[in-house]
Amino acid sequence: MIIVEGVSKTYANGQPAALDNVSLQIADGSIFGIVGRSGAGKSTLLRCLNLLERPTSGRILLDGQDLTQLSDKQLREQRQRIGMIFQGFNLLHSRNVADNVAVPLEIANVPKAERAARVAELLALVGLSDKAQAFPSQLSGGQKQRVGIARALAARPAYLLSDEATSALDPETTASILELLRDINRQLGVTIVLITHELEVVKAICDSAVSLAEGRVVESGTLVQLQADPSSRLGRSLAPSLQVVRAV
Ligand SMILES: Nc1ncnc2c1ncn2[C@@H]1O[C@H](COP(=O)(O)OP(=O)(O)OP(=O)(O)O)[C@@H](O)[C@H]1O
């Protein structure tokens, strides 16, 4: 479980807080969405979860361990438990697909033969076994994101953070990547935290969501709770689409 406890983040003196006393809990095995307008603090919050950004105050508890109190070595170890995928994929263009996926395994000093077996397993998981030798420039956006997902899962993380991972993709490709993320969540039990500006993404795969405005939590809860609460704006925006049933 991830617990965010009273987290504030100010980037520079005199600037308004990017996060202002944010508290929330992310249950194990869930898919948790972070929504809000541009500048609301979504990326800052996501990056605080693995301490890519260090909170100015507050605590980030990962399975009970406060990340803000760890030494650099302990933090590196904990970060292996948190994979991350990005809107721009962040692949290494001079390396082929298999070698991109192997990066975290190389960093963790996994022996070569074991690395190759793990990479093959990951490429099968994301449906890219036939692209192992291809270079990123030869792939579609959806395929590049699949490589990003395989790389993020290489070290068998318990958590996967997704920073607008489908924003650069067309609707059909978005749907197939969301399906893959849901399969990973269900099959591997990986907890997924995602930022999105598309409420359709939250509707499609999230169990819970938080909305942020000006660095503060406006609402949070499970989708079922939010949808059942008539006073919830987020719940109304996430209402299931009306099905038009036509009599034949
Ligand atoms: N590295 C940084 N240095 C200074 N200010 C920053 C930095 N990163 C973000 N900010 C500021 O913090 C606030 C929150 O930004 P953040 O990127 O977290 O919002 P966001 O909701 O993810 O926005 P977007 O949807 O546009 O990515 C904004 O006012 C932004 O300008």
Can you summarize this structure?
One of its GO terms (molecular function) is ATP binding. By secondary structure, the chain is α/β, with parallel strands linked by helices. The chain is 36% helix and 23% strand.
Distance between the first and last residues' Cα: 49 Å
Shape: globular
Bound chemical compounds: adenosine-5'-triphosphate
The number of domains: 2
State the share of residues found in helices, binned by percent.
25-40%
Kindly provide the radius of gyration, computed on alpha-carbon positions and rounded to a whole number of angstroms.
19 Å
Q: Which oligomeric state applies?
A: single chain
Strand content: 15-25%
Q: Which class best fits the helix and strand makeup?
A: alpha/beta
| CATH H-tier superfamily of the largest domain | P-loop containing nucleotide triphosphate hydrolases
Q: What is the succession of H and E elements?
A: EEEHEEHEHHHHEHEHEEHH
Number of strands: 10
Membrane topology: Peripheral membrane protein
Organism: Pseudomonas cremoris
Protein name: ATP-binding cassette domain-containing protein
GO molecular function: ATP binding
Structure description:
The chain is of the alpha/beta class and 248 residues long. It folds into two domains: 1-81 and 158-248, 3-Layer(aba) Sandwich (Rossmann fold); 90-156, no CATH class. It has ten helices and ten strands. A hairpin with a 2-residue loop joins strand 9 and strand 10 (216-222). The mean pLDDT is 94. It binds adenosine-5'-triphosphate. The site of adenosine-5'-triphosphate has 11 residues, from helix 1.
